[in-house]
């Protein structure tokens, strides 16, 4: 069960090798979390992540999970919930893709959309149903400021995150009053393996900063978290710029 400040004892991470997700998990283990499920495709990286978390004192399990196999989500994730209550689910899988390549290869673009949106919808609904059945818990969804307004530089990725963000907000409204809390996290540019080699955007942040914001959001039972917080005002301004002006910006 979660404590009085909303921090979980048990945590299921969808995207168990995500640098942001692992930073959040380490921070929660340092506070209170004792049982962790890392869901992802079997790999040495997943095993290594589990070992590092065990060294911090948590009981860590891995579960075979593929975002691109929605038909298998209910079975794979159902086994986790069958072991006992899960206080928090962190939906953290996703792929950035390669905008230039994906524009030329529709199949690659579809893979980005299927991972970031279709897979997230399937997994999110499975977990939401399980949390609702147990009567409590938080579903934390890693979205992105890229979903706030489509940019020429990454509109395929951004459109998939826009869909995910809208889905998570609607799911939060649908679950309001059930005991299940949905929190959408909107980071800006985060320095990770996924963004290595890309030009760094203004207000760039780190996985550890995202983790701190997630903890604060859980304690406050927030519905939306921006990382860093200043992006809320920046994106509000960009969202309302005339399209002709926005098109000329170097973004």
UniProtKB/TrEMBL annotation:
Q: Which InterPro entries match?
A: NAD(P)-bd_dom_sf (IPR036291), Sc_DH/Rdtase_CS (IPR020904), SDR_fam (IPR002347)
Q: What is its EC number?
A: 1.1.1.333
The record's annotation in Pfam families points to: adh_short
Q: Which PROSITE patterns match?
A: ADH_SHORT
Q: Spell out the coiled coil positions from the record.
A: none
Task: State the Gene Ontology terms under molecular function.
Answer: oxidoreductase activity
Superkingdom, natural source: Bacteria
Arranged from A to Z, the UniProt key words for this protein are: Oxidoreductase
Q: Which family does it belong to?
A: Belongs to the short-chain dehydrogenases/reductases (SDR) family.
Official protein name in the record:
Decaprenylphospho-beta-D-erythro-pentofuranosid-2-ulose 2-reductase
Q: What organism is listed for this UniProt entry?
A: Streptomyces sp. R17
**Source taxonomy:** Bacteria, Bacillati, Actinomycetota, Actinomycetes, Kitasatosporales
